[in-house]
Amino acid sequence: MLGHHLTPLLGATGVLALLTLVPGPDMAVVTKRAVTRGRADGLRTVAGIAVGLLLWGALTVAGLAALLAASAEVYLAVKLAGAAYLCWLGVQSLRGEPGAEPAGDLAEPGGTGGAGGVGGAGGTHRGAWRTGLVANALNPKIAVFYTGLLPTLAPPGLRPAAGMTLLVLVHVLLTVVWLGTYVYVLSRARLFFARPRVRRALDRVTGVVLIGFGMRVATTS
What integer pLDDT is reported at residue 115 of this predicted model? Predict the structure, then answer.
């Protein structure tokens, strides 16, 4: 009985892992926050993304995500809002965020950092979590992904709601592990990213990538 559920679950996990590894807006947003604000803010952004996935997962299990995906007007509104948000983040990155010096865990080992310091810590922390959440919550493609793919991957023998809930949790776990590891890798290169020329070049690249993802979200069906 266990093998009857375990084998399909392992196969579904493999598919979800491959899809999780594909670079997308989430990785660009995490890169921006981790490099400009530090490892802690990068991880908070990952947490916001995870909450966004859980939100879409709950809507999917409740059947609401399917209604959104089927409603052209609502889908378009959410899609354009998400695209505008990604483009706004990209423009911010191109312009350079005021006072966005690398935080202590990226700039210097044991340093205090600028933006991550005591004065603005509360707002910065909330901003990182909110950035991840909003970028994910305004991506209707997750609704299409969950409603279109998860039912085909759900282990047989489980109720549809239970199967999709399990796969949503697996996807969230894979996302947190993958993006969390990515943030850790960025933090290991903190001295390299602390160089002004490197920071500015990365800001430009990240900005262009975010705007590109925003345009892609806006123009694809």
Answer: 39
Q: Are 83 and 166 in contact (CB under 8 A)?
A: no
99 pLDDT band (50/70/90 cuts)? very low
Side-chain-side CA neighbours of 88 within 13 Å: the count stands at 9
Which residues have C-beta within 8 Å of that of residue 191, sequence separation ≥ 6? 108
Q: What is the pTM of this model?
A: 0.77
DSSP state for residue 99 in the 8-state scheme: T
Which one, of 38, 87, 49, 103, lies nearest residue 206 by Cα?
A: 87
More confident residue, 173 or 86: 173
* Distance from C-alpha of 122 to C-alpha of 79, rounded to nearest angstrom: 30
**Rounded distance between C-alpha atoms, residue 210 and residue 26, angstroms:** 9
Burial of 156 by CB count in 10 Å (0-12 exposed, 13-18 middle, 19+ buried)? exposed
Structure tokens at 111: 């340093």
